[in-house]
Every structure is written in C-alpha cells, then in structure tokens.
C-alpha cells in the first residue's frame, strides 16, 4: 500500500524542503518558485484518500507537481502508474507472433522517477527494449535508436532513484549482471542496480551515477561475467569510494546464491580493487 501523502512527505524531506504542520495541513515553500515564504503550499490528505496540494502563489498544483516530477496520477494512494507508464501494462512484445509470452518487464527511470525506457523478457529469453513515445498508439516504440542508429534515450542504471537515495544514505550499492539478480538482491534488503541488456553493456555513463558510493559487484561465474565485472571496476576507478567483487557461494549468480539459501554475508569475496577506507592496503 502506497500512501500518496507519505510519498510526498518523503520527497520533500529527501530534497531538504522544510515543512511544518499548520491549520490542518502540511506547509511547504513553493518549490515551484524561488525562495518564497515557507508556508506557500498546503498539503492535505484527501477526504477519499490521496493527497491534495494547493500552492497559494500559483493558485493550484500544476507547477508544484512539475517541480517534483509528479503527474495527477501520483496524487492517488494506490495506483502508482504514471500516465507515461501505461505501456508497462501492455503485454504485447515483438516475439509474440512466435508464440512467446512476456514474463518480466523492467522500467528504467530517471532521477525524478520519469520513464526513460523499458526492457521486456519473454519465456524464451528474448529481451526487447522500448522507449516511451506519446506519438505511438501503444505509447511506446520498440527501439532506443532512430533510423540512423543514434540513441534517443539517456543511459541510466536500473532503479536510479533508489540508488541515488541509497548513496546519500551511505548504503552499499550492489551491481549485478541483470535485472533478475538485482531483484534477488533487493528482495534480501539490499540496494542493487545493473545496466540494461546484460554483460558487456555497462558504460562510463552508468558509472557516473555512483560517485562516492561503496560498491559490491556480483560477478557471474563464467568468462563473460568475469570480464563484465572487471570492466565495471575500471569504470568506477576514481568515482566509487570502495569496490568489492564477489561471487555466488552456490551456482552462477546472485539469484542462484539466494535460491540456495545463502545470505548476503555469504558471498565469496574474490577481489577488492578499491578497499573500504580504513581497510588494510591490498598488495598489488
Ligand atoms: Zn506555486
Ligand atoms: Zn521471445
């Protein structure tokens, strides 16, 4: 259950926007404006749930919503789906004509929770990527590039809004090879990310989001997995604060590790290229 009022209070707290209760409403400055008075915006629980936002300066909520990256849909308690997320509910995939079924979909988001692109996986392990496009009838197009092959969407690591928050909270960021492993890690209380499209597709652009982070990379137990982990390490030099590389104690990857009943402290440490501050220096 997701309460819109609580989500909004979290966002304001995360952004360092001062708030206080007054006259039955949470008051905040109008972050839709620059530096105006601290009680410009009134935020209340709606009578039927949801949250009601009123900015006295712009006499409404539109600019305030834009400033925090929300749409009208975010004002409701349970339905988190944004307007531009609707393609996420459409189960059509490019290989459906071959009888394949969608089994998973992963949505990549920007800093504010906006959809950058999505990845689908079918029951025959075809992966396909789409980008939101309001000009398309389905709301999405099944390519991240234009006809000349130029990329049209940003490169962002998976679960970026959570990752940025976790870095700010000094939590360790786990990097896995794919979304399935990321979710295995998240299901065990960890903060995890990956790049879209698997081994070999991590870039320096992904690494830029991990500045100052303490990172643990889970390397898949095969040659591409090892190369992938080594490449991720290279991109994090001078960016991450610390980097460890671990492997599953059982099986090939993080999902196997947890499925075998192991905990996060039971991964095998295979390399510490950038030790935690205070660790004994690792011999070259
Ligand atoms: Zn305003
Ligand atoms: Zn398929």
Automatic annotation (TrEMBL):
InterPro entries: TOPRIM_DnaG/twinkle
Pfam families hit by this protein: Toprim_2 (PF13155)
Protein known as: Toprim domain-containing protein
